[in-house]
């Protein structure tokens, strides 16, 4: 596991060292250029001074009488005088012999494995050469660069301590927040306090709080689903158990057959309830994050109308459709289930000889789906409650689970749509009107 403090410390110190070395390198080359220009001037002035002294003292007895001006020991210069008339060579003891120059001026010479910078001038029969080891110039430039880098190296420990303290102070709120979270109960989903947190950490804590909120909603939905499922399954299972007991106690084949018919109906109701519960569970809580595609509503509505027609004919109910071009972004299986549930609901509650109409169209840029019937309708005061799980209107005699409209409402919410209940066909019955946003607007955030 990496440490932010250690990483920041090493990164900052590394950056300072890199900057220091870059500055030292630039200083070295700059100083080297300055020293080269200065020392070249020094060599030239020394040679010219000796040449001028020779010209003023001609004829002279010996080169040892020459006066050397500005010969600083620090610069480690070598002076050589060659007398072309006598062929004699004069230089200081312990200094290397310099080659005779090809002409006056500056040049670079290789002597005993070292590079020398030389300057030559003629004075009568004498050729005066002043030379300096190039390494002396490099050493002077390196010394100047080191003096730049030395204070930085001395300050590095103090900089490291300061960075350690500053980073520790900056990370203290994060450590406090971590300890606060560690002390929490596993069931605690209350938001983490952002009081006194820096902006960077507050963003992270806010994101965690949003996650806790969604997690709380998910857990609440799961708990409610488990409680509701257990409650609703208890009744049909009890009924099945009673039907089995009645079948066991039946004394005639006719009574036993009647019990088996009721038992089969009870199994069908329990199976439908389980299927509805599983459908509802699959839609909670993050179904809106699933990929969506463009759905053509007209063929979908026509297909559902044709599929449900045989079921409606058993009650002599006619199903028609008025499908105009309309589109929406969504999950096709969920939209089909939504319209099918509403149609099945209409068939179950519409009396024999009734009629049902499925519609889809576009209005003001919005896609609209309507399922209309001429059944008994829903009282205005109950139109909002019918979407609650397991809720069934008072006086309802038709069997059902109370989950169909809850599933419809959940699918509408997933697709960022709205649902309204209005009067149905012929001034009676019910119209479920589903309105969805235009293409692209219902995509999950």
UniProtKB/TrEMBL annotation:
Which stretch is the leader sequence? 1-33
Q: Which reaction does it catalyse?
A: ATP + protein L-histidine = ADP + protein N-phospho-L-histidine
Where in or outside the cell is it found? Answer: Membrane
Residue ranges spanning the membrane: these are 154-174
Annotated Gene Ontology MF terms?
A: kinase activity
Q: What positions does the domain HAMP occupy?
A: 168-220
Query: From the record, what ranges are coiled-coil?
Result: none
Xref: CDD domains: HATPase, HisKA
Keyword tags: ATP-binding, Kinase, Membrane, Nucleotide-binding, Phosphoprotein, Signal, Transferase, Transmembrane, Transmembrane helix, Two-component regulatory system
Q: What is its EC number?
A: 2.7.13.3
Chaperone found in the keyword field = no
Cite the Histidine kinase domain residue spans from the record. Answer: 228-440
What is this protein's name?
histidine kinase
Q: Which organism is it from?
A: Sutterella massiliensis
């Amino acid at each position: 596991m990496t440490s932010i403090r250690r990483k920041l410390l090493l990164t900052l110190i590394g950056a300072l060292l890199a900057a220091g070395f870059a500055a030292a390198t630039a200083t070295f080359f700059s100083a080297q250029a300055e020293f080269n220009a200065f020392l070249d001037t020094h060599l030239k002035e020394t040679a010219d001074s000796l040449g001028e002294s020779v010209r003023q003292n001609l004829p002279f007895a010996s080169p040892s009488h020459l006066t050397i001006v500005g010969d600083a020991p620090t610069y480690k210069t070598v002076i050589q005088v060659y007398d072309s008339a006598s062929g004699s060579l004069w230089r200081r003891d312990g200094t290397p012999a310099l080659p005779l120059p090809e002409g006056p001026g500056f040049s670079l010479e290789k002597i005993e494995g070292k590079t020398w910078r030389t300057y030559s001038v003629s004075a009568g029969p004498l050729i005066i050469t002043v030379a300096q080891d190039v390494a002396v110039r490099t050493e002077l430039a390196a010394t100047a660069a080191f003096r730049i880098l030395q204070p930085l190296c001395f300050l590095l420990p103090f900089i490291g301590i300061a960075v350690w303290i500053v980073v520790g102070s900056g990370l203290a709120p994060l450590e406090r927040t971590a300890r606060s979270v560690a002390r929490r109960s596993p069931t605690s989903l209350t938001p983490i306090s952002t009081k006194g947190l820096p902006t960077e950490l507050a963003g992270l804590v806010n994101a965690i709080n949003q996650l806790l909120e969604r997690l709380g909603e998910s857990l609440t939905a799961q708990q409610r689903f488990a409680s509701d499922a257990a409650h609703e399954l208890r009744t049909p299972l009890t009924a099945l158990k009673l039907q089995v007991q009645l079948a066991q106690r039946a004394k005639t084949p006719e009574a036993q057959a009647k019990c088996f018919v009721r038992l089969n109906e009870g199994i069908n109701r329990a199976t439908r309830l389980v299927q509805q519960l599983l459908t509802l569970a699959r839609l909670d809580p993050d179904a809106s994050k699933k990929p969506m595609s463009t759905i053509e509503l007209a063929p979908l509505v026509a297909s559902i109308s044709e599929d449900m027609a045989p079921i409606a004919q058993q009650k002599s109910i006619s199903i028609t459709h008025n499908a105009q071009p309309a589109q929406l972004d969504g999950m096709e299986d969920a939209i089909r289930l939504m319209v099918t549930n509403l149609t099945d609901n209409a068939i179950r509650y519409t009396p024999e000889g009734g009629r049902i109409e499925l519609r889809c169209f576009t209005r003001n840029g919005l896609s609209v789906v309507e399922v209309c019937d001429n059944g008994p309708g829903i009282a205005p005061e109950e139109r909002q409650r019918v979407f609650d799980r397991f809720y069934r209107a008072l006086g309802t005699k038709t069997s059902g689970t109370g989950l169909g409209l809850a599933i419809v409402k959940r699918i509408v919410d997933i697709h960022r749509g709205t649902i309204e209940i209005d009067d149905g066909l012929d001034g009676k019955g019910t119209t479920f009107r589903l309105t969805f946003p235009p293409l692209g607007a219902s995509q999950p955030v």
